[in-house]
Design goal:
This is Protein jagged-1-like. By secondary structure, the chain is of the alpha+beta class. It has a domain of 113 residues: Immunoglobulin-like. The protein is 11% helix and 27% strand. The strands form three sheets. A three-stranded antiparallel beta sheet has the order 4-3-7, with no helix packed on it. It has a two-stranded antiparallel ribbon with strand order 1-6. The protein is elongated and about 90 Å long.
């Protein structure tokens, strides 16, 4: 005969059955979209390459500015997971892209849907297991597309490509 304490608890087979049913309910959720970067302006007042050398020739001895040819400026993007210390090397986990040469040392471009020269688009898709969402919930977890103005300076310019 069972003790009174054991009567109210579900047995092991019932617990295993519940765990199996929960596991079968898990689904794979996917998301896709695109990362889009549009270059609107660039300022390289000294006409220097990424490594600090002049794009065309030597520096002016008086003011130490590059004096000859302008740089041929293009941009490269490498989308990676978060890094507390950004490095130029390593794989681009979520994609990479570049623009053709789009200007010299300093330029301003207009935002235009028809001009793709100054735009880098990286499509992405992800899939991960989820166990469902609240019943009746139809809210999107991803906000509507937004535009941000990011003045890139310092370490962020390490990916800037300049040709001689």
């Amino acid at each position: 005969m069972r003790s009174p304490r054991a009567r109210g608890r579900p047995g092991r087979p019932l617990s295993l059955l519940l765990a199996l049913l929960c596991a079968l309910r898990a689904k794979v959720c996917g998301a896709s979209g695109q990362f889009e970067l549009e270059i609107l302006s660039m300022q390289n007042a000294n006409g220097e390459l990424q490594n600090g050398n002049c794009c065309g020739g030597a520096r002016n001895p008086g003011d130490r500015k590059c004096s000859r040819d302008e740089c041929d400026t293009y941009f490269k993007v490498c989308l990676k997971e978060y890094q507390s210390r950004v490095t130029a090397g390593g794989p681009c986990s979520f994609g990479s892209g570049s623009t053709p040469v789009i200007g010299g040392n300093t330029f301003n471009l207009k935002a235009s849907r028809g001009n793709d020269r100054n735009r880098i688009v990286l499509p992405f898709s992800f899939a991960w297991p989820v166990s469902g969402h609240p019943a009746g919930s139809r809210r999107s977890l991803v906000p509507a597309p937004a535009r941000f103005h990011l003045p890139l300076q310092g370490a962020f310019l390490k990916g800037l490509g300049l040709k001689r």
